[in-house]
Every structure is written in C-alpha cells, then in structure tokens.
C-alpha cells in the first residue's frame, strides 16, 4: 500500500502545482504539447490564438491549468506522445461543425475526474495488475479520454458545446459503473495492453 500512497501524493502535488509562465521547465513542457499535437504547424508566438486549435480557451493556455495544475499538462502531453492516433482522432472530433468541444479544456476536466477515481480507490485493481506508477495512471487517463470521445461522437447529431456539462456528468456515472464492473470480472480498462508500461506481470503493490 505504501507505493499507492506515494503515487497519490505525487499526483496530488502535481495537481496542486500551478503553471508558472516564468518557469523554463513549465514553458518547455507546454511547447512540447504543441509540437506533439500540431507537428505540422509551427507555433508563431507563445501567446497566440493558435492555442485554440487544440482546445484552450484563449491566447494563453497557462490560465486554463488553474484547476488541475501541472497534472493537467502532464496528462495531455502523455496522451499526445504515447497514443498519437487516438489523440489526433479526438482532436479532429473536437472540431465538429456543431458538436465541437475544447479538447484541452475537456482533457483538464478528465484529469480532475481520473484523479478523483484514484483518490476513491477505483483504480486499485489496475495498479495491482500492472504496478503502481505514474505511467499506469496516465494510461488510464488516456482510456477515459478516448472513451469520452467515442461516447460524444456517438451522440453528436444532437449535441452542442452547451450540452457538455450535462453530458460530462452522465459520462462520469457511466465510467464509474464500468469501473465497478471491472472489479467484479477483472477486466482492465486500458487502450493498449501491449505497451511496455504494462509489463508488470509479477509486480504487486508494496
């Protein structure tokens, strides 16, 4: 159990660490998000309307991380780097003519939700099977984001961004119910179980 408490402390600390525009490390990671998400387009300025293309609300994405601090940025960068096909599919869906959504902002909301699930110990069986690590947490985040897009797209004929609040509440209920079922039948919710991060067959929680 010590390992899971240590991970929780790490995640909580990242979520509580505000984005600092004066930090070279923070700025470098934000640039990494752009370079990974928009490889074919150069960011012309640190403060730019270009950020809206990946779902930030304004010209400076630093303001959008207030709720989840650096953990929100960590999650987005991990998703963009480790699951580029899924990430790009979600990004494309976010630009739907009528059922559009702000991808980065939704991602930060999903960070809050997945962190809450970890705090409520919904994800313990995932850690038990694959080991307690930040990467395994990130992989679960990616699964949830992918599931969000699939559910949103399946209903986008009658959704608009104004429906997001209601939709996201319903989505959280669905995922929590799915998590409860996985506890009963030992199904693990990840995008790609073949990834090296899951090579923990003999690793158990300390």
UniProtKB/TrEMBL annotation:
<dbReference type="InterPro" id="IPR006816">
    <property type="entry name" value="ELMO_dom"/>
</dbReference>
<feature type="domain" description="ELMO">
    <location>
        <begin position="25"/>
        <end position="179"/>
    </location>
</feature>
<dbReference type="Pfam" id="PF04727">
    <property type="entry name" value="ELMO_CED12"/>
</dbReference>
<keyword id="KW-0472">Membrane</keyword>
<dbReference type="InterPro" id="IPR050868">
    <property type="entry name" value="ELMO_domain-containing"/>
</dbReference>
<protein>
    <recommendedName>
        <fullName>ELMO domain-containing protein</fullName>
    </recommendedName>
</protein>
<keyword id="KW-1133">Transmembrane helix</keyword>
<feature type="transmembrane region" description="Helical">
    <location>
        <begin position="99"/>
        <end position="118"/>
    </location>
</feature>
<keyword id="KW-0812">Transmembrane</keyword>
């Amino acid at each position: 159990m010590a390992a899971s408490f240590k991970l929780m402390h790490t995640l909580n600390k990242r979520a509580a660490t505000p984005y600092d525009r004066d930090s070279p490390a923070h700025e470098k990671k934000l640039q990494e998000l752009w370079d990974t998400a928009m490889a074919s387009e150069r960011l012309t300025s640190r403060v730019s309307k270009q950020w809206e293309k990946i779902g930030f609300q304004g010209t400076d994405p630093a303001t959008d991380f207030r709720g989840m601090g650096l953990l929100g940025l960590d999650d987005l960068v991990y998703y963009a780097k480790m699951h580029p096909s899924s990430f790009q599919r979600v990004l494309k869906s976010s630009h739907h003519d009528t059922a559009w959504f702000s991808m980065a902002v939704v991602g930060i909301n999903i960070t809050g939700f997945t962190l809450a699930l970890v705090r409520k110990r919904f994800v313990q069986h995932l850690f038990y099977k694959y080991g307690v690590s930040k990467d395994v947490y990130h992989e679960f985040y990616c699964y949830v984001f992918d599931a969000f897009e699939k559910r949103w797209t399946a209903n986008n004929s009658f959704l608009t961004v104004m429906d997001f609040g209601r939709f996201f509440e319903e989505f959280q209920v669905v995922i929590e119910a799915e998590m409860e079922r996985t506890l009963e039948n030992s199904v693990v919710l990840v995008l790609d179980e073949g990834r090296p991060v899951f090579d923990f067959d003999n690793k158990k929680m300390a």
